């Protein structure tokens, strides 16, 4: 069964091809993705690599976690399941406008 790994602290110049070639050194890669910012279409500095077995994933973690790549020490560990987060806009804001007190028109 495939095991998904989180790969963090990537250089913003690292490509999916670079990541794929690096992880293929320790085993068979099922998939490889670098997460891109929707607004700028630039790397967000992390990605995911799916290794074909738990043994290969363990080998990749021991080989690459802390390894200096393009001047940055990588963070490599088993990916946690994605948490459900509410969709939609930002939070709150307090009650706007309104008229306080008894103001208004008097006779």
How would you describe this structure to a colleague?
The N and C termini lie far apart (81 Å). The radius of gyration is 23 Å and the shape is globular. The mean pLDDT is 87. It is of the alpha+beta class and 107 residues long. The protein is built from two helices and six strands, in the order E-H-E-E-H-E-E-E. A hairpin with a 2-residue loop joins strand 4 (68-69) and strand 5 (72-73). Strands 2-3-1-6 form a four-stranded antiparallel β-sheet, covered by helices on one side.
Strand order of the largest sheet: 2-3-1-6
**Extended strand count:** 6
* Overall form: globular
Helix content percent band: 10-25%
Largest sheet: 4 strands, antiparallel
Which series of helices and strands comes N to C?
EHEEHEEE
Summing up helix and strand content along with how strands pair, one would put the structural category as: alpha+beta
Distance between termini?
Answer: 81 Å
How many helices? The count is 2
Radius of gyration: 23 Å
Q: What is the mean predicted local confidence, pLDDT?
A: 87
Pick out the low-confidence regions: none
Give the strand content: 25-35%
SSE inventory with pairings:
Layout: E1 3-8, H1 16-24, E2 29-36, E3 43-51, H2 54-64, E4 68-69, E5 72-73, E6 75-78
Briefly characterize the structure:
This protein has 107 residues and is α+β, with helices and mostly antiparallel strands. The protein has helices spanning 16-24, 54-64, and strands spanning 3-8, 29-36, 43-51, 68-69, 72-73, 75-78. The protein has a four-stranded antiparallel sheet with strand order 2-3-1-6, with helices on one face. The chain has a two-stranded antiparallel sheet with strand order 4-5.
